[in-house]
Amino acid sequence: MNRDREKRESELIKLISAEKLPKHVAIIMDGNGRWARKQGLPRIAGHREGMNTLKEIITCANELGINVVTLYAFSTENWKRPSWEVEFLMRLPEEYLKTELQPLIEKNVVIRVMGDLEQLPAVTKRAIKNALQATKDNTGMILNFALNYGGRSEILNAVKKIAERVQEGALKPEEISEDLFTRYLYTGDLPDPDLLIRPSGELRISNFLLWQLAYTELWFTTTLWPDFKKEHFLKAILDYQERERRFGGINKI
Ligand code: FPP
């Protein structure tokens, strides 16, 4: 590895305050296609390189002691891509888990997946099921993949489930609070993200965690996901630690 980069990383790590770590970091992994085009490579080469970034960032998050990392791996809108790209993306969880599941088990990581999993190909579902089962009793960092995930559809699902409960007479409309609603989301038992990272220069949240991001600190960079390294992640955490979070209140007058 590049010596200079290693040095910069260790300098950045020294500046991070362990007490002010974000508990939950959400990431929109974007820019794989553009990265590939810039290198004169096919788009899938960008996704493969993006997977290397993913490994580096997960290792770093775990070493820092972050509790939850949620990664946007495939959105409900990504089906609109050419079938060869969709097929490739659907193979990635299996490919990733083939080499990474064992080290993740050893690191006590809990793998979770959120989204409409029914529509996924059998091979993807099988790999996921195996990973969920193999890590379910772990107690360390939660690694949460959003796969065939859409924020609006997540909210609609929650609304439908709550409506059913009301119809059955198990719940009264006046009992529907923000806390109760939160529990009906995929992330029901997780804290809201403290920090959202989006690489590649796009300044939007693209149907990701619409309810959960209400008070999340947003961090954008023009770096494309395959070029996004530990160093960028550490900078995002440091910037986050500089921010004053008020949640709509006032901290000082
Ligand atoms: C967006 O870049 C990226 C994706 C839709 C896929 C992200 C997936 C990975 C990085 C690997 C996932 C791995 C596992 C294990 C699930 P883009 O293709 O939209 O880039 P572009 O905007 O430059 O075209």
Can I get a quick summary?
The chain has 253 residues and is of the alpha/beta class.
Tell me what the structure shows.
- The protein is an alpha/beta fold.
- The protein is 47% helix and 13% strand.
- The protein has 8 helices and 6 strands, in the order H-E-H-H-E-H-E-H-E-H-H-E-E-H.
- Strands 3-4-2-1-5-6 form a 6-stranded parallel β-sheet, sandwiched between helices.
- Helix 2 packs across helix 3, helix 3 (43-64) runs parallel beside helix 4 and helix 4 (83-106) packs parallel to helix 5.
- Bound molecules: farnesyl diphosphate (FPP).
Q: What secondary-structure arrangement, pairings included, does this model have?
A:
Blueprint: H1 3-15, E1 24-28, H2 32-39, H3 43-64, E2 68-75, H4 83-106, E3 110-114, H5 122-135, E4 142-149, H6 151-168, H7 178-183, E5 195-198, E6 217-220, H8 230-242
Parallel strand pairs: 1-2, 1-5, 2-4, 3-4, 5-6
The structure holds farnesyl diphosphate.
Q: Tell me roughly what share of residues is in helical segments.
A: 40-55%
First-residue to last-residue Cα separation? 47 Å
Helical stretch tally: 8
- Series of secondary-structure elements, N-terminal to C-terminal: HEHHEHEHEHHEEH
Question: What key phrases describe this protein's structure?
Answer:
about 250 residues, 6 strands, binds farnesyl diphosphate, alpha/beta
